[in-house]
Design goal:
single chain, 728 residues, alpha/beta, Rossmann fold, eight-stranded mixed β-sheet, 19% strand, binds GDP-alpha-D-glucose
Length: 728
């Protein structure tokens, strides 16, 4: 039995290979992800697979690089210049990147790029297949490798595969524009667990999956033909302590002093990003210009420290962006500059880590206003670096980080007026208020750091695997069927719980066209004729309809998911609302997610409900979070028979009525049954399967995984089974 290991996969390996004379140097990346995953991929047999950062063409060199990387627990996937051009610069960065960041006008539709994207993803799959065993855990990162999970799944049907999307996932309306949308989704769905930075990204993914690939979902679980897949919001954190320490490191302090000698003592606003149109750099520059225009008192007193890190600069859109930034900076500096003061201090280059420490120390305000950003780590790093808790963060609502950093000044980056006023407000903000806001943000980021994120990812991935195992459902045939018939024959008191639509009758276009035929009525009557049997049809249908169709038979009826019930020959009675608390854990977890992101809000546990209060939350933010939480709760728990109430500064969740699971548990508790059979086909029946004891014979009708012990393929098979039981 081979040992199991973990394989991390990303487009780029977290290392830089530098040539020094005749030998190669391997310089590990200091990025947050590499640090956080360091404790994982360097352990035991674990490895990180990715492109080594340059197009090594000669075989001898490739062999040398492969050997060198082995010592770092890394395995290379070599790519040719052409592959890099089409797969990386082409499809990844000129099709997926603009589409996923809502820059529709920049999307390129080039079939050759797509084909190379596919073949490079396959190259990754081939490479991984040479290292992987079926029991391994694989974590695939980001939009360059969307097809990889699916390709791995084809080869390893049971492998544990996780995927994390570092950039936004766009609305279905945008995603569906892509000609290759279906293949991209199927690729992603090869994973068992998919993480996104925000709830909205996850929601968009679920919606695209449902509408474009037709897979049903309930809450955040997607039902594929053979597996259940889970999508989740899991916002990425930073290595908090590393940034806090860097800011007070002697070298950072020393650099600050050196930089100050050159640029002067004025107050500084920080702008720092990779060169990318999604980061909103030109809009930010125009807002800064407007600030100087509207509030001339800042002239000679305030400068913008503009750090732009070169990126993808061979792509035409990036080249023209660079020209645009150069021009704007030139224009603003020449218009407002003085001999003694330059409004914008502009640097187009990448800096060492200690320099970042100096920048984060030096700047009174960080202006992070991307027009779209999956998360944005720079803003989090700025917060972690403020040792005295002073400083102000201006943050775009369009960055994933805005969901967590509610104490920043949040702005719509396209609203120039708002950004200008935010800069003014930040420059005027009293120290106490700066510290109050900074303290809250630091507390959150320290707790939800990147190590926590990595841990949660793996924990959640394993949890999905456990759930899949619990839901693996073999067909009811041969020995299983014999065992059921034997148990039936032996027992003296039996409970038969039968769902109606999809179980006893097939689906019709018109739901009112599903009345039971003569055969079915006779079959149910015959089963009920056995004194040992209690036969219950339990359905989501209206009680009036169920009564009309089955009310005359000698069986018990439960309608509307348990809200109504009717004994043999009895009248319909309405059941009281449920008071059990199975829903509480899930609900609490979701509400806590919002408490952590919404300072001032809290959860109140009541005897039969749970409430999220936001009356103490900053105006505007509370309302924004309220709609998000309401939608989140409805999404995740709606089908569990829970009701979301929108109160005065409170969102309350309470059980609507009994659901099928609770109804089944209630019926089961009424007597001591030695044989229990429950048959159903959809998600509401899963509640019954979960609620009944392990000895119960639970049967799911149709394809897909289920909590049921076994499965039948069709309604006809259900009838055949019931006839066999009747004959016993
Ligand atoms: C993608 C998503 C998501 C920047 N300049 C220098 C430098 N940096 C470091 C920063 C920060 C990182 O680069 C940039 O990360 P961001 O998150 O801000 O942005 P993207 O590169 O676009 O990243 C983004 C992220 O993935 C993670 O999921 O947050 O939304 O677009 O850590 O400090 N580092 C050094 N020198 C520099 O000059 N050493």
């Amino acid at each position: 039995m081979p040992s199991t290991k973990t394989i991390i996969v990303s487009n780029r390996l977290p290392i830089r290979i530098e040539k020094e004379g005749d030998s190669l140097n391997y310089v590990p990346s200091e990025g947050g992800l590499a640090t956080a995953l360091g404790s994982i991929y360097k352990e035991g047999e674990n490895i990180w697979v990715g492109w080594p950062g340059a197009a090594f063409e000669q075989e001898a060199l490739k062999a040398e690089v492969t050997e060198g990387l082995k010592k770092e627990s890394m395995r290379p996937v070599f790519l040719t210049e052409q592959e890099l051009e089409d797969y990386y610069l082409g499809f990844s960065n000129q099709t997926l990147w603009p589409a996923f960041h809502y820059f529709l006008q920049y999307i390129q539709y080039v079939e050759a790029h797509w084909q190379t994207y596919e073949s490079v993803n396959r190259k990754f799959a081939d490479a991984i297949a040479t290292y992987a065993n079926p029991g391994d855990t694989i974590w695939v990162h980001d939009y360059q490798l969307l097809l990889l999970p699916g390709m791995l799944r084809e080869r390893f049907p049971n492998m544990t595969i996780g995927f994390f999307q570092h950039i936004p996932f766009p609305s279905y309306e945008v995603f569906r524009i892509l000609p290759w949308r279906r293949q991209l989704l199927e690729g992603m769905l090869g994973a068992d667990y998919l993480g996104f930075h925000t709830y909205d990204d996850m929601r968009h993914f679920l919606s695209a999956t449902h509408r474009l690939a037709g897979y049903p979902y309930s809450g955040n679980r997607i039902q594929l033909d053979k597996r259940v897949v889970v999508a989740d919001p899991l916002p990425m954190g930073i290595d908090y302590e590393k940034y806090a320490e860097n800011a007070v490191h002697p070298e950072s302090i020393d650099r600050e002093a050196r930089y100050r000698e050159n640029i002067g003592a004025q107050r500084l606003l920080l702008s720092m990003d990779r060169l990318d149109y999604s980061k909103g750099i030109p809009k930010r520059l125009l807002a800064f210009e407007a600030l100087l225009e509207r509030y001339p008192q800042y002239k000679e007193k305030v400068s913008l420290l503009l750090v732009v890190v070169p990126s993808r600069d061979v792509v035409p859109n990036y080249q023209s962006l660079k020209e645009q930034v150069d021009e704007l900076v030139g224009k603003i500096n020449s218009k407002y500059g003085r001999m003694s003061w330059q409004p914008i201090q502009y640097f187009y280059r990448s800096y060492p880590f200690r320099a970042l420490g100096a920048f984060y120390r030096m700047c009174d305000v960080a202006v992070i206003t991307p027009v779209r950003d999956g998360m944005n780590l720079v803003c989090k790093e700025y917060v972690a670096s403020r040792e005295n808790q002073d400083g102000v963060l201006i943050l775009s609502e369009m960055a994933g980080a805005a969901k967590e950093l509610a104490d920043a000044i949040l702005v719509n980056p396209t609203n120039q007026n708002q950004v200008v006023e935010a800069m003014h407000q930040a420059l005027q903000m009293p120290l106490e208020e700066q510290q109050r806001r900074m303290r809250i943000m630091q507390k959150g980021l320290r707790k939800y750091n990147i190590f926590q994120w990595v841990k949660l990812f793996f924990d959640n991935l394993q949890e999905v695997k456990r759930m899949q195992r619990a839901m693996a459902t073999p067909l009811l045939d041969g020995a299983g069927r014999d065992a059921m018939l034997k148990a039936y024959a032996k027992s003296e008191q039996r409970l038969l719980l039968l769902d109606y639509d999809g179980t006893l009758v097939g689906f019709r276009e018109d739901p009112l066209d599903c009345a039971p035929d003569q055969d079915l009525r006779e079959l149910l009557t015959a089963l009920a004729a056995d004194k040992a049997n209690k036969v219950v049809v339990i359905s989501g249908r209206k009680h009036e309809t169920l009564g009309e169709w089955l009310g005359a038979l000698p069986i018990q009826l439960v309608a509307e998911h348990g809200l109504w019930s009717k004994q043999v020959d009895g009248e319909w009675t309405r059941n009281a609302a449920d008071t059990t608390s199975q829903w509480r854990d899930g609900a609490h977890e979701i509400m806590q997610f919002y408490v952590d992101r919404t300072p001032g809000s809290f959860v109140e546990e009541k005897s039969d409900s749970m409430a999220w209060h936001y009356r103490k939350v900053e105006k505007g933010l509370g309302e924004m979070r309220k709609s998000e939480l309401t939608s989140h709760l409805k999404h995740m728990l709606g089908e569990k028979g829970l009701q979301v109430l929108d109160g005065d500064h409170v969102v309350e969740l309470k059980p609507e009525a009994v659901n099928k699971g609770r109804a089944a548990a209630g019926l089961h508790a009424e007597a001591t049954y030695s044989f229990v059979l429950c048959i159903g086909d959809d998600t509401t029946d899963e509640d019954m399967f979960e609620a009944l004891p392990d000895e119960a014979f639970t049967v799911k009708v149709g394809p897909g995984s289920s909590y049921a012990r076994s499965a039948l393929e069709t309604v006809g098979d259900v009838h055949a089974l019931l006839r066999d039981l009747k004959e016993v």
